Amino acid sequence: MDKILLFLICFVIVYLVYYLVVVRRKQGLEAFKKGKQLLFFKNAYNLDIKHLDYKKFANSLSLVNAFIIAFTVTVIEFFSSYIVKLGVGLIVLIPLMLICYYILGKVYKKKEGK
């Protein structure tokens, strides 16, 4: 039960910080438009960023990033050694990022076609 609580607390904190710093602020959203994450999605999934609702996309990306971080933190809490935590964290983090970003890219590519 404490692992679920850890996941929820971590998820909410990461999401709120990202939301308040990037999505809600005009300067944060302008920086997001010029940032590397948007460029990654444009290049990797051929998203047409001219027709993209930046605020919705930034919000979706913040939810995905919060899930990735919260899930990784929850998984590494099962181990006691810092070396093992580091190794497991990398093993969980990289595939989780690739999978979640792939899903988000495909969802927005599908929305683009409509």
Structure characterization notes:
By secondary structure, the protein is mainly alpha-helical. The protein has five helices and no strands. The longest helix is centred in the last third of the chain and has 32 residues, at 82-113. It is globular. The mean pLDDT is 90.
Q: Kindly, what is the distance between the CA atoms of the first and last residues, rounded to a whole number of angstroms?
A: 42 Å
Largest sheet: none
How many runs of DSSP E, i.e. beta strands? 0
Percent in helix: over 70%
- The SSE order reads HHHHH
Strand content: under 5%
From the alpha carbons, calculate the radius of gyration and give it in angstroms.
16 Å
* Average pLDDT score: 90
**Low-confidence blocks of residues:** none
Number of helices: 5
Shape: globular
Structural class: mainly alpha
